[in-house]
Amino acid sequence: MNYHDRKRVLVTGGAGFLGSHLIDRLLAEGAEVLCVDNLFTGNKRNLDHLINHPRFEFMRHDVCLPLFVEVDQIFNLACPASPVHYQYDPVQTTKTSVHGAINMLGLAKRLKCKILQASTSEVYGDPEIHPQVESYWGNVNPIGIRSCYDEGKRCAETLFFDYHRQHKIEIKVARIFNTYGPRMHPADGRVVSNFIMQALRNEDITIFGNGSQTRSFCYYEDLIDGFLRLMNTGPDFTGPVNLGNPGEFTIKELAELVIDMTGSSSKLTFNDLPSDDPTQRKPDISLAESELDWQPKVALKAGLQKTIEYFEQFVREQDDTGS
Length: 323
Ligand code: NAD
Ligand code: UDP
Ligand code: UDP
Description:
Bound molecules: nicotinamide-adenine-dinucleotide, uridine-5'-diphosphate
Largest sheet: 7 strands, parallel
Strand order of the largest sheet: 3-2-1-4-5-6-11
CATH topology of the domain at 3-183 and 218-246 and 283-298: Rossmann fold
Strand content: 15-25%
Number of helices: 9
Helix content: 25-40%
Radius of gyration: 19 Å
CATH architecture of the domain at 3-183 and 218-246 and 283-298: 3-Layer(aba) Sandwich
């Protein structure tokens, strides 16, 4: 592609787990990519392999502040995603979702370009409808410890739809269900990275509650494929659309699987369940199937295998450097 045909794509949160994989796919497809990230939970390590790439540029910037750049498409992923990290500075989390959305929508408005929002299954809260369909409005505590994230993301969705109605911005809203894979932050507290790191070090596996709560785990490759299909839909399709793997597992089942697959001598321990922890979660993906012709392909065991290999390498490097 020559300079004139090439798409210029902005990825906010591009130094994070999903953002860095998205950037790899966009570059492979010939786009020019600008990554904007304040490196709060992201890491330049995720982008090391791109530093000399001629179509890649990194900008350290907080999306809570205005941003004046020239691009053709925006993927807005900037936001800490794990409960440990989004609860570390909850005010900043809400600001990132809300001020970040306003600034990126303002940018999309000026540039008249498409913008995709990385929303979340957390907009359904502790759901009373199972599996969750997009038409369900959710059951969210507005004043709890998860609210900075849940309500921040809900308000971001509101802003996306109001910019769409009021300013005719072309929007795409993806509601992402728990996604895992290589490049997750090893200490970000999410269940897949926690259990694998604990198992590899033969430490206790920390189950919160009795482990009967469920989650549905999507491998990152499937998710990124869904993102790109969504961005490529026509102007009439806005979402919100669920992206996730409908396979549903209890947290105890996940722990046992990880122990089994790593051959670990770790033991299960049962700890207090954090407040407002959703008891069940599973996406209804009929809309993604019909509108995006998308469904996940990677089974939990296959995805876990690759994720375990990534963390094994990480642990080896840590041991080698003594850090
Ligand atoms: P991540 O923490 O690895 O990535 C988030 C990135 O955003 C990081 O690089 C971080 O440094 C950056 N960031 C945070 N605040 C910022 C700010 N104010 N300005 C600029 N950059 C900022 O998490 P992830 O799993 O890659 O998640 C990416 C997006 O997808 C997030 O918006 C998250 O809410 C959403 N999401 C992820 C999942 C999942 O299971 N992975 C599920 C639902 C939604
Ligand atoms: N904005 C930005 N980059 C742009 C255009 C706008 O960061 O290229 C920010 C701008 O600073 C504003 C926000 O986006 O705070 C919302 O923009 P909008 O045009 O909707 O609102 P207004 O500027 O009228 O308040
Ligand atoms: N969880 C757990 N042990 C851990 C980390 C998480 O039992 O070390 C549980 C957590 O309580 C929740 C589920 O695993 O029920 C998924 O947690 P995660 O933080 O990955 O994401 P969530 O879906 O809650 O945002």
